[in-house]
Every structure is written in C-alpha cells, then in structure tokens.
Specification:
This protein is an alpha+beta fold. The protein is 21% helix and 25% strand. The protein has seven helices and 15 strands. It is elongated and about 75 Å long.
Length: 302
C-alpha cells in the first residue's frame, strides 16, 4: 500500500522507499519489464506518479542464468569473503564483454573462479560496482551477492570509499599538490573522448606529486567523484597528461631532447595509470605496482 507520505512520488522512487532491499536500477528494470502493478493495473513507466492508498504488487522473477561463458583466465585475487572479491586487474583486460571483446574479459574469468555468485543485476553474474579502463591496472572490488552490491553502490561516491591511483605524467605539476575541480562530459569534437566541458558532471580530483623524475613525475591521484576517464582528463587539463595515454597525450616523448629518455617512453604500450589503493570503510586493499610501470620508473631514475 502506498502510504500518505509517498503520495505524488515517481513510482521508481516510491518503490525504492518501500522495498529498500532492491536497488533503484533493479526496480526500474522490473517496472519497464511489466513486473509492477498498481491496483491490478500494470505500470511500465518509471515516471508514473503514485497516489496514497494504491495497492502495489511487485513480482521479482528468479535470476536468469548468465549467457556469458566462464573461462579459466589468470586472476590475481587480493581478498575474498562471503560478500566481496577484490582483484588486481592487469592492464589489457577488458571488464565486460562488448563489441570487439566478446570473451576473455574479467567477467568471463570471475564466472570461472567465483562459484557462489548470486543474481546481482537480474542475472547470475558478478556484481561489477566500478570499472577500470582496459589499459588501467590495479584494485577492483566485485560484489558476490545482491546485498553487498547494494551496500557498495550506495557507499561508492561517499567518504566511506577512497580510491587512490598512481599516474606517470609528463612534466612536473606546479604546485606539486592541489585539486582539480572541473566538470567532465563527452568531448563535442570527438565522441570517443571525454573533456572538461561547461555543463558536464562535476568531477573532483586531488593530486600530489610523489616523485619528480627526468621529464616526468609520479603523481598520486585521489578521486572524490567517479567520472569516465576522470584522472586522464584532469591531468591533461592540468597540463600534465599521462604518459602512454593514446587519447589524451599521444607521443609527447618525441619532443624530449634526451634520446635515452625517448627510448624508454616510446617503449610504453599503455597509459601509465594504476589503481593502487582502495579503502572501503575500515578495510584497505592495495595492489603492488605492476612490472611495466615499475620498470619505467626505475629506468627514469637512472
């Protein structure tokens, strides 16, 4: 029954309050797929307004088996319990199957290694809470059941979760630490890219120079928001794009006069961005610097 205090609310908002064990996105899918009735009338629009006293019937179908195949791919698991699995994602691994990447993704590997996944998101599949770009390495957390997925999603862009990355950038940021607060949206000139644009979604990145090397610097970036390509776009905005980033920096090493440095930087095959640390509540998960990143830093020190 719709209580008086929910009178006039959108149905997706009202159901979120009435059924807190279901996520708003999951409820939206149930509405759109015809699984919600008001006074025996089927409702398929999430924008439908409810009235106090209406009877609500919610039909939650069982989770469907995933159509994604499990594959025995190497997977470095940093932590696992009944609710979470935390992995160290290697560079080059795509998170989800998509056009051009039908299989051999992180999801395929998780379905093989983690046997007790439940119906997160409407099918039996891993509860991907966040993503890393294909060529970004480091810590990722995956929910193993619906309750853990909802709790992580609710906490994700709050101060209960802290995400820290290491980036190798061109030049030396001045000042060496600071904050970039600049909205991010789709680049109007290139739809494959993101950019700092007026009217974009607010994005905030705190940065701190960890080590200044020859022509490049290691910078720690902490995210207060989670926009697509946020660190890559903000470092470019700062004037210090990430080394090896094909979208936002390109082969800037060509302008460096030192031929040895040129050779080192030219050998890099992906953006030098690594999700080093993830703090969830009182738990801290750390992924060590991968070999390719560590090698470049050592050579630049020389």
């Amino acid at each position: 029954m719709i209580p008086r205090e929910h009178d006039g609310l959108r149905i997706d908002r009202a159901l979120t309050l009435l059924f807190p064990d279901q996520s708003r996105s999951a409820l939206a899918r149930l509405i759109e797929n015809g699984h919600v009735r008001l006074d025996t009338n089927e409702v398929r629009k999430t924008s439908h307004r409810v009235s106090a006293g209406q009877r609500v019937d919610l039909d939650v179908p069982p989770a469907a088996p995933s159509e994604i195949v499990s594959q025995d791919l190497p997977l470095t698991i940093l932590f696992e319990d009944d609710d979470l699995v935390v992995i160290d994602k290697p560079a080059g691994l795509v998170v989800h199957p998509a056009a051009g990447h039908a299989d051999r993704t992180l999801v395929n590997a998780l379905l093989f290694h983690i046997r007790d996944l439940s119906g997160v998101g409407g099918e039996v599949r891993p509860g991907i809470v966040h993503r890393l770009d294909k060529d970004t390495s480091g810590v990722m957390v995956i929910a193993k059941n619906d309750d853990a997925h909802r709790k992580l999603t609710a906490a994700w862009n709050t101060d209960r979760v802290r995400k820290e990355y290491l980036a190798l950038v061109y030049g030396a940021p001045d000042p060496p630490r600071g904050t970039v607060d600049a909205p991010i949206g789709r680049d109007p000139r290139d739809r494959k890219k993101m950019a700092v644009v007026q009217g974009g979604r607010r994005a905030i990145t705190d940065y701190e120079t960890v080590e200044r090397l020859r022509y490049v610097s290691v910078v720690r970036c902490s995210l207060r928001t989670g926009r697509t390509h946020q660190i890559r776009v903000h470092m470019k905005k700062l004037g210090h794009p990430i080394v090896g980033d094909p979208l936002y920096s390109g082969p800037q090493w060509r302008g460096i006069p030192d031929k040895k440095v040129q050779k080192v930087l030219a050998s890099i095959e992906r953006q030098m961005l690594h999700a080093e640390r993830l703090v969830v509540g009182d738990r801290v998960f750390v992924a060590p610097l991968p070999e390719d990143f560590a090698r470049v830093v050592m050579e630049m020190r020389g």
